[in-house]
Design brief:
174 residues, alpha/beta, four-stranded parallel sheet, two-stranded antiparallel sheet, 4 helices
């Protein structure tokens, strides 16, 4: 019979960094993200989800048991961003100009939940200036944000959610 639910959990790509040593602070190292590698990592994640779904659905022993019209997704931190990109959001790929473009759109994922979803920072939004890359998204999305989270600020998440056209919710956690 049909499976009630199944889990597909891809591993995340590793963020490229360069280590710099500051001799004035007794050899303390600072790790600075390499922008091009960071953007590539962000873009590859939704493509990996789609490829994983393709692989699973190509196999009769899975395809014939899954309810493909009821695929949902859950992502933590950048996993939440991944789900927005999977739903068609446009990714900010330009560090200074915030130019953006769509990575993919996989309509097989019918709803998503992001736990402390990383949608960028005020000074570096994941979906471009004022999160315009989330404009008109119809993927139902529930975000769970921490009220004092400096890495995944709730206000940045709210801005993106407000641009969406589909059902969305935002739960703030103290």
């Amino acid at each position: 019979g049909d499976l009630r639910y199944s889990v597909f959990g891809p591993d995340s790509a590793t963020l490229g960094t360069k280590a710099y040593t500051d001799s004035a602070t007794l050899g303390t190292k600072a790790y600075i993200p390499v922008w091009s590698e960071f953007v590539a990592m962000q873009a590859i994640r939704p493509l990996s989800i789609s490829a994983g779904l393709d692989t699973i659905l190509a196999r009769a022993e899975w395809r014939d048991r899954l309810q493909t019209s009821q695929v949902g997704a859950f992502g933590i931190s950048q996993g939440g961003e991944t789900l927005m990109l999977l739903g068609g959001a446009e990714l900010n790929y330009a560090l200074l100009t915030f130019d953006r473009k769509r990575v993919t759109l996989d309509t097989r994922v019918r709803a998503a939940v992001g736990y402390v979803p990383y949608f960028g920072l005020e000074i570096l939004p994941a979906f471009g200036t004022d999160q315009l890359g989330a404009q008109g998204l119809t993927l139902p999305f529930l975000a769970l944000s921490g009220t004092t989270d400096p890495i995944a600020p709730a206000g940045v998440v709210r801005t993106a959610l407000d641009r969406m056209a589909g059902p969305r919710g935002h739960v703030l956690l103290d």
